[in-house]
What does this fold into?
Amino acid sequence: MCVSPLRVRGFRLLLFTTVAVFSGVALLLSVVPLWVVHNNAGEFAAGGSTAAFMASTVAAQFAVPRLVRAWGYRLVTASGAVLLGVPAPLLLITTDWPGILAVSLLRGIGFGFVTVCGAALVAELLPRTALANGSGLYGLAVGLPQLIGLPAGTAAVEHWGFVPVFVAAGVIPLLGLAAIFGLPAVAATRHDDDLPAKGSLWRPWLVMLSGSIGYGALVTFLPLALTDTVAASTALFASAGAGLASRWVAGRLGTRIAAGRMLPWGLALTVLGMAGLAASIQGESPWSAVAAVAVVGVGFGLIQNDSLVVMFAAAPVGRASVAWNVAFDAGTGVGAVVVGAVVAGSSYPVAFGLLAVSAAVLLPVALTARRAV
It folds into this structure.
C-alpha cells in the first residue's frame, strides 16, 4: 500500500523549509546578474556571478554527507539557511564585481548544504513506495519559489529598485529555521560511503547535467536577452511554471512507469525548446521565445524528477543526493559561464543554438539511462 507523503509530518516540515530557502535563492538568481550589469560590468561578469554561486554550492555539496554524519540533518540544514540568507543584504554595499562574487560564494555554501540535505531527506523520511510521489511534491516545493520568485525579483527591481529584493532574499530563508528544528532526528544512512552502488549513476547524471546547463543559461540571461521586460518576466514565469507542473506530473506517473523512461522525452523537449529560443531571439520575436522557454521548462521538469528516482534506485541515499545536486548546480553554473562567454564573442541565438546541439548529442545516453537500475 502506498502511503501519501503528505501524511508524514516530517515531510511536511521539509516542504515548508524548502519553500522558504528556495524563495531566497529564486529572488536573486536573475537579479544578481542584473546588479552586476547595473554596476558597469558586462555579460561575462554577469554569468560569472551565477557561476561563483554554483561553484561554491557544488564544493559544499561534496562535504555534506560527512557533515551530516557528524552534526545531523537539522544542524547542517539550519546552517545552510543562515549562510544563504544573512549575506544577501550585503549586496547593497558591494557594488564592485569581486565583492559581489564574494557574497555569491558565501551564499552558495549555504545553498549546497540545504540542497543535499533536502533531497536526501525525501528518501530518509519516506518509504520506497512513496518515493516517486514524494519527489514530485518536493519538486513543487522547489519549483513554486522559482515560479514566483524569478519573475517577481526582476519585476520588483524594475518598479522599486534592488534594495527591497536584497532585504527580502535575506529574511525569507531564515523563516524556515523553526520548521528545520521541528524535523525528526533522522540519522544519515550508516556508512553511506561504504555501501555498494546497485547501478551506474553516470547516464542519469549526464542527462540531468545537460538539462541544468540550459536552465542556468535561461535564468541568468533571459532578462538580458529579451529587452522587453514584460516578455522577460513572463518567460521566467513560463519556464518555472512549466517545470513545476511537469515535475509534479512525472512524480505522479513515476508510481506506474519504470524509472528512467521519461528521461528521453524530457531531453528531447529541452532540445526542441532551446532550438526554438535561438530562432525566436534571432527573429526578434519575444513572445515566441516565451513559448520556447515553456517547452524547455516541461522537458527539464521531467528530467529532474525521473533522474532523481533513478539515482536513488542505483546508489545509497547520500551518494545519490550529492550526485543529483552536483549535476543540477554545476550545470546551472556552467550554463551561465558558457553562454556569457559565447555572447561576449558572438550572440544569444548562437549561444542557445549550441546548447540545443549539445543536448541533442546526449539523446542516446537518455535512451539507455534506465539501465542504471
User: Anything to note?
Assistant: The chain has a mean pLDDT of 86. The longest helix spans residues 131-160.
